[in-house]
Amino acid sequence: MTKTDYEKYIRTDELFELMRPVDGLVTHDELLFQVTHQTAELWMKVVMHDVRSAIALMEENQLVEAANRFERAANIEAHMTRQLEILERMPPKEYVAIRRTLGKGSGQESPGFNELLGMGELIWPPLEATLKRRKLEIVEVLEAPYQHAEVHTLLRSLFELDQWFRSFRFAHFRLVERQIGAFVDSLKGAPAELLSHGMREHLLPELWAAVNQFTRQIKDAEGV
Q: Model-level pTM?
C-alpha cells in the first residue's frame, strides 16, 4: 500500500518499530509505559530546543520573544507532568512485570531529563548579563513590574519554567511512590524516597532568593 505524505514525513513505520510489538508485550500496560517514556524523551528534546533558542533571543535583547519560548517550554513541562497521571492508573501489579524487563534501568538515566537538569546553568549567565545591561536587580523588577515590563515578562516565564520542572519531578516521585513505594529499593539499589530531595532544588535559585528578599524588604519597610 502506498504511503501517504503524512506517513512519510512523520516516518510512522520507523516510529512504531521503536516500540515492543504487541504480541511481545510482557503485560498489557507495557505499551503505555514505553510510549509514555519515549514521548517524554521527545518532548524534553523540544524543551531544550526552545530553551536554547530563548537564550539566543535574550542575548539579542529580544526579551518578549525569549519569554514566549521559555513559556512554551514550561507548557511542555506541564504536559509531561500531566502525562504521568495516565501511568498512575496502571495497577502496581502491571509494573512488577515491566520492571523485570528493565534490567537496572532508571529514569535517572534519562538523557533528556539530565539535559533539563542543566537548564539553569545555561540560562543564568545570559540572564545575569541582561540584567546588567538594563542596570537592574531582580528585586527592583519585582518592586516595579509595570515599569520594567519586558524584564518582568521574561522573569515570569522563567519562574514558570522552573516551577513546572519541579512539578514534573514531584509527579515522577509520586508515580514511583504509588507503583513501588517510597522506601523500597529501586533498580539502582536506592530507595525512591531519595527522589524527594530533587523536588526542592531550583533551576534558578537566584529568582526564588529574590522573592524572599523582596518580601523581607516590604516587611521591613512596613515594620511588620
A: 0.90
End-to-end CA distance of the chain: 75
Q: At what angle do helices 149-179 and 63-87 cross, to 10 degrees?
A: 10
Computed on alpha carbons and rounded to an integer, the radius of gyration of the chain in Å comes to 21
Cα 71 to chain centroid, rounded = 12
Taking the alpha carbons of 174, 180, 186, 192 in that order, is the dihedral positive or negative? positive
DSSP state of 191: B
Cα angle for residues 17, 22, 28 (degrees, 5° grid):
130
CB 142 within 8 A of CB 211: yes
Tell me how far apart the alpha carbons of residues 172 and 189 are, in angstroms, rounded to a whole number. Answer: 18
Amino acid at 112: G
pLDDT tens across 132-170, in order?
999 999 999 999 999 999 999 999 999 999 999 999 999
